[in-house]
Amino acid sequence: MNNLFVYCEVEDGIVADVSLELLTKGRSLANQLNCKLEAIVAGKNLNGVDMQLFPYGVDVIHIAEDERLEPYTSLPHTSLLVKLFEEEKPQIVLMGATSIGRDLGPRVSSALGSGLTADCTSLEIGNHEDKKAGKVYDELLYQIRPAFGGNIVATIINPDCRPQMATVREGVMKKEIVSPDYKGEIKKINVSDYISEADLVVKVIERHMEKARTNIKNAPIIVAGGYGVGSKENFQLLFDFADVIGAEVGASRAAVDAGYADHDRQIGQTGVTVRPKLYIACGISGQIQHIAGMQESSMIIAINNDRNAPINSIADYVITGDMETVLPKMIKYYKKNSK
After folding, report:
1. pLDDT tens for residues 140-175?
2. Which of 31, 40, 59, 172 could cysteine-pair with 184, CB 3.0–4.6 Å?
3. What are the helix and strand counts (H, E) for the chain?
């Protein structure tokens, strides 16, 4: 009762990274709240999933193993979670802001009348005083995310309705094991008690999963371009530079919207969150949406002809100049010093 729950996504017996990241954050929040961390897993062939989850400090795993639950469809998963949460009455529920989480989260929160904050960049525990009502609320979930086009960072709370629900994108939270020997309790769910035949009216006849063409999330070095690059042709210079130094190429939302780069290279609040050892930002102004996706890079180099660009304030090194002039010189001297 009143514990913290994380809905964990599983594909081919492997728990999604975003779910493990949420368990790491969930463990920290549960410690502050002095409550249990519980995980929900639904699908088929779930043997061994517990061994993946327990090291992240999970106290209870609810396992709903049934062939009818995989691949994911909206109705049975919604019914399962709604009825489980009505029984368990969690105070907080976290999900990944994936295609599944973005479908499932709103359905569950609507059915429970609880509300949901999407695409959070931070989660904290804190108090809130409603001076108008004369109430003080203790230990609420602060659901933090950029709002109004990224012009502000909003802290959203849900004082009265439970559970407090939020979705978080992959890469926003760090993934850390509590202990390889951590052991909790397993609770098997009788799926037939939670879903009806009407929930199974939609069946997946054929399913095709296309892998991403790029993998910038785990790249140790990223060269990213913004709208200031100027054109798709100029963006090729970033690929040339990346080839020389062994980097991946990323882009800001403005560059993607302008057609300079593909969406799977987008970094920021509406793209991918990255933590490379080296991040080289070219022609990027540094709006909050973009900074949210790369600010934890170990080292940041900003190349921009605007001395007052916001990204300069978080950069370790700032090169003021045109990218078309700076990058060819960097390529030249890197090749020279690499011999």
Report:
1. 999 988 777 666 788 999 998 899 999 998 888 888
2. 59
3. 8, 17
